[in-house]
Specification:
6-stranded mixed beta sheet; 2 domains; Thrombin, subunit H; single chain; alpha+beta; 6-stranded antiparallel beta sheet
């Protein structure tokens, strides 16, 4: 009787897990292409990291770039050069994916600057990475999304630890890893909102500190900046920019970044969240923040 009960329990659990897995949307990420002059290894790192982050969400079951390439190879589908819409959809169908995502790394720039005198000097490094993606529905054969994003990382006082990015591959530096992580996080959030309606939000507010449902698995790290905004009609209303003070795998705590970065008192639970970098912060300061809701 005990064995029978255990067997029935196992069947129920397996059925439950299968049903849960079936609820996730199956998507495949193709190896990103590179614009002229960009090393292919950087494009591979971007697409691999993006696929990992998208797969960590509860909305998608993601076929990795390696799995998609293997399917293409097994079916003698050429992958050299730019991948056409038809080829992408063909691979997606063979992989039994609802959506297939193709992308191109359009820019990957490193800058390094030394300044100062013999006794006192400084060294600055920065990496900027930009990519565009297209998402195809394999069932309808239509392009359902086209978007782009860019990530930036500059030299700081702390060691960089980026989830899912190997500094050892493609000669990646810490700055490269940081830029790729931010870029991948932005692309992931855009895909999630467009295809599933999900977007990260403020989940709790205590005085001048807020909690948001993004963590290290989504590219959030201590010191990172996030724009808090709400939507009024067809327009986004920027409320504040916050800086992460503590991060776990699935959430992080943050406070207003600095003076002139909005009003944290206007922020409410449920407001939207999106990562920003130093370049984007300048534009936000220039355009200003909401004075009331």
């Amino acid at each position: 009787m005990k064995k029978l009960a255990f067997s029935l329990l196992a069947v129920v659990l397996c059925t439950s897990f299968t049903a849960e897995a079936d609820e996730r949307i199956r998507a495949g990420v193709l190896r990103f292409q590179s614009s002229a002059g960009i090393e292919g290894g950087f494009a591979a790192a971007v697409s691999d990291t993006f696929a990992q982050m998208l797969g960590l969400s509860e909305k998608f079951s993601v076929m990795s770039t390696e799995q998609m390439m293997m399917i293409a190879t097994q079916n003698t589908i050429p992958l050299a050069g730019n991948i056409s819409k038809e080829t992408a959809i063909q691979i997606g169908k063979l992989a039994k994916c609802k959506y297939v995502i193709a992308g191109t790394v359009t820019s990957f720039k490193r800058t390094s600057k030394n300044s100062g005198i013999v006794i006192v000097s400084s060294h600055k490094e920065e990496t900027r990475a930009e990519a565009e993606i297209k998402v195809y529905d394999t069932e309808t054969g239509k392009e359902v999304m086209s978007d782009s994003a860019f990530g930036r990382a500059a030299q700081g006082g702390n060691n960089i630890s980026i989830y899912g990015v190997s500094k050892g591959s493609s000669n990646l530096s810490g700055m490269d890893a940081g830029a790729i992580s931010e870029l991948s996080s932005k692309l992931t959030l855009k895909v999630l909102e467009k295809l599933t309606g999900y977007f990260p939000t403020v989940t709790q507010k205590e005085g001048k500190e807020i909690t948001i449902d993004l963590g290290t698995m989504n590219g959030a790290n201590k010191g990172g900046y996030y724009r808090i905004y709400t939507v009024s009609g067809d327009e986004e209303m920027n409320l504040a920019v916050v800086k992460v003070t503590y991060a776990t795998e699935n959430s992080c705590k943050a406070v207003r970044a600095e003076k002139g970065m909005g009003n944290i008192s206007l922020v409410e639970e449920g407001d939207k969240v999106f990562p920003v970098n130093a370049i984007e912060l300048k534009a936000l300061k220039k355009n200003g923040f909401a004075q009331s809701r």
